[in-house]
Design brief:
Blueprint (H helix, E strand, L loop, with lengths): L2 E7 H22 L7 H4 L2 E5 L7 E2 L7 E4 L1 E5 L3 H8 L11 E3 L8 H25 L4 E9 L3 H17 L4 E8 L9 H15 L2 E6 H17 L28 H14 L1 H4 L8 H8 L9 E5 L11 H11 L16 E9 L4 H11 L10 E6 L9 E8 L2 H10 L1
Helix pairs in contact: 1-3, 1-5, 1-8, 4-5, 5-6
């Protein structure tokens, strides 16, 4: 089984990462009720014997002793990282995984990239090497950052070049959060454009996410809940925006709902690689099949459903609707309508007890939009459902006007 290291950069990256680790712990606790350290949980966590002095001895088999996240937390301010260390997830991290400063980057890409990048390069490399040493088979670095802030856009993209030089064989998956037109940081468009150049040159795969799309999804869910049309049909605490686990006991913060959507995206992206299934898809297959040319690596993603019905016996018509929703503009995590263009490649990743025949039937119904190659449709089925949803569909696509959508965000 392969392992991945999550690199959380800046305030946005660390807040999303915090939600991600909470969901990951909840999911593995729901699946692994015996508390055994297995290959699935080793993808993102290492099992540490805290009785050993120093870094702690890693335990590859047996009962779970103390889980430590395979993560590096970076921020040029101390606020968010300190909050994590004082929060309910404090035992998942330790000081050896953290890099912080006091002054911050002042929402300036150049400060994060040129100043703090050079200043902390060796320290960051040491943390990354240490995390890599704890992996038996390191496959991927997940970088989570924003494009509008100084640390996220500047230092976050500086890391890509460092990773490319030091770990050339390890994939670099980047989740980039783009600012909306209503962003109150006046430098955010400039930061985003400067960071885009680094993403083009040094990332293997980029999952762009637009803040406005997250706002729209939240508004849609709120409107649906307030209308009372579904009522008791929705399973409690099953919304894609809901805080779960250790966070459900505290007061939700303004961006928690948005962060939970992104955390769900990342968790479900890796589900097929972590759990058994009739049609598994490893992370390297995403790049192999969805990136036809090196710089065409921006993948548009969507999630469906946004909630779970209390009745788990979903009829075939409802399943077909979920496939259609995956290609609807209302479920995209970037402001784009996939139906207005042609696909270069597409991957449908399904979780839950779904029949292969249903999957094939819906692919045949939707395949007319492909252009690059008819074999560009990939599918994956993980039999382990998400702990929030009985059935879940994730769609990631590579389609022709992908960068035009990003430029449209700036023009708007």
């Amino acid at each position: 089984m392969t392992q991945s290291v999550v690199v959380q950069v800046g305030q946005c990256g660390n807040q999303i990462g915090c939600c991600f680790w909470d969901l990951a712990l909840r999911e593995h606790a729901a699946v692994n009720k015996k508390g055994i350290y297995d290959e699935a949980i080793s993808s993102f966590f290492r099992n540490v014997d805290t009785r050993v002095v120093g870094d702690g001895g890693s335990i590859s088999k047996g009962k779970i002793c103390s889980l430590k996240a395979r993560a590096v937390l970076i921020d040029m301010e101390e606020g968010v990282v300190n909050e994590i260390l004082q929060g309910p997830l404090r035992d998942v991290f330790d000081s050896k995984q953290l890099i912080t400063d006091i002054s911050g980057s002042g929402n300036n890409w150049a400060v994060g990239h040129k100043v703090f990048g050079s200043l902390y390069q060796e320290k960051i490399l040491e943390k990354l090497r240490k995390s890599a040493e704890h992996c038996d088979c390191l496959q991927c670095f997940f970088i989570i950052h924003s494009m509008g802030g100084g640390t996220g856009s500047g230092l976050g993209t500086f890391l890509l070049k460092v990773l490319e030089d030091e770990f050339p064989e390890v994939y670099r998956f980047v989740t980039s959060i783009y600012p909306s037109g209503e962003d109150d940081v006046i430098t955010s468009p400039y930061n985003s454009i400067l960071a885009m150049k680094e993403l083009n040159e040094h990332a293997d795969c980029v999952l762009p996410i637009d803040n406005q799309s997250l706002f729209d999804i939240i508004s849609k869910i709120d409107l649906m809940m307030n209308s009372g049309k579904l009522g008791a049909a929705i399973k409690p605490k099953s919304l894609v925006t809901s805080s779960t686990g250790v966070f459900k006991k505290r007061q939700e913060k303004p961006f928690d709902a948005m962060n939970n959507i992104v955390a769900n995206l990342l968790l479900n992206l890796t589900s097929s690689a972590r759990f058994e299934g009739s049609l598994n898809m490893d992370l390297n297959e995403i790049i192999m099949n969805l990136v036809p040319f090196p710089q065409l690596h921006y993948l548009v993603s969507s999630l469906t459903p946004l909630y779970t019905l209390a009745d788990v016996n979903i009829p075939p018509r409802r399943l077909d609707q979920m496939f259609s929703d995956a290609f609807s503009k209302d479920h995209q995590l970037i402001r784009a309508d996939p139906k207005h263009s042609l696909y270069l490649a597409c991957a449908l990743m399904v979780r839950g007890n779904v029949q292969i025949s249903d999957l094939r039937r819906n692919i045949e119904r939707l395949i007319f939009t492909i252009i690059y190659k008819l074999k560009g449709w990939r599918k994956a089925v993980s039999q382990k459902p998400c702990h929030l949803y009985q059935h879940l569909y994730k769609n990631i696509t590579n389609w022709m006007p992908q960068k035009a959508c990003l430029w449209k965000i700036y023009l708007d």
